[in-house]
Amino acid sequence: MRGTPVNFWLALVVKVGAVLAVALPVSLVIIFGELKISAHIQSRIGPYFAGGRWGWAQPLADAVKFLQKEDLVPGAADATVYKLAPYVVLMGTLATFVIIPFGPDLVPENLDLGIFYLLAVSSLSTLGVLMAGWASGNKYSLIGGLRAAAQLIAYELPLVLAAVAVAVQAGTLSLNGIVEAQATSEIFGLSLHLPYLFTGQVIGFAIFVVASLAELSRIPFDMPIAESELTMGYLTEYSGIRFTMFFLGEYAGMVSLGAVASTLYLGGYWVPGLSGSALNIVGALVLLGKVMLLAFVFIWMRWTFPRLREDQLQTLAWKWLIPAGLVNIVATAIFKVVL
User: Fold this and answer.
1) Which of 159, 233, 258, 259 supports an S-S bond with 211, CB 3.0-4.6 Å?
2) Which residue blocks in the chain are alpha helix, DSSP H?
3) 104 and 176 Cβ atoms separated by less than 8 Å
């Protein structure tokens, strides 16, 4: 754009590079963790060849395998939309990292309306999934895309309601402000310095975790994929690098939603007794540790629970999570005034 300073583009490139430097390596670690954890749960050996005894290079080997496959476009597909869909999904996931604070000064962009931005960009994934299902020219892909859109729309509402309750308790929409509010929390004049999970947001945290699983379309909420009946749903026609983008987007979504949940409910980067540059370094590691803990919970639930039927999935959202989210907001507002 004419008149845009060079510093703007330099800062943009640096911020995008920082986001990719965090999201992609952590996603590969979580992929490896899922391979080993699922093997342990099912009493299997798991990967043990690529990378030696522990099989640490298996995610890299899988990536190389996918990149070597031919990138096919079905004859009946809308080629332009078909090719853009996986990048829209991945872009919506990576855009959430822009506002996640890894330290007091380690945040790409500290927005005053951080939660509002977060909920807005997360809806891009719904658009990308619909694009993939419709443009593939395959009835299974179309059904999978429609299921995914219905599911994502239904579970975005409880996700929003859970985040609103946190904003009410913190008195701000900024993620940095929410972390600082947890670090200085008080009840009846007593300084608790506890994450919101322990000061009234247990229900909100449970709603957020369940809705996050549904947003990621992971078991028990994987009806849009349902390989036994929809042959991978909206992914049926994808191969090569575009399938890799969808696959990587799922695990990058685990990282982003885990980081958001850690920021909203688990205190984010805050560590008692630290401040300044020390908190920037230690706090980032603490936040990554919390993300890994939540990723373990996501993986554990995938390999433990059976798939829900479509009616059960929608019932859970509309009859249970959304009313619970509304009640949580009202209760949070009352306690905010009283305490």
Assistant:
1) 159
2) 6-41, 58-68, 79-94, 114-122, 124-135, 139-170, 175-183, 202-215, 227-230, 240-265, 276-302, 310-315, 322-338
3) yes
pTM for the whole structure? 0.87
Question: What pLDDT, in 10s, does the model give residues 290-304?
Answer: 999 999 999 998 888
What sign does the CA torsion over 326, 257, 71, 17 have? positive
Q: Rg (Cα) of the chain, in Å, rounded?
A: 21
Q: CA-to-CA distance for 21 and 110, rounded, in angstroms? A: 19
Tokens of residue 57, six digits:
């290079």
> Which residue ranges make up each domain of the chain?
72-338
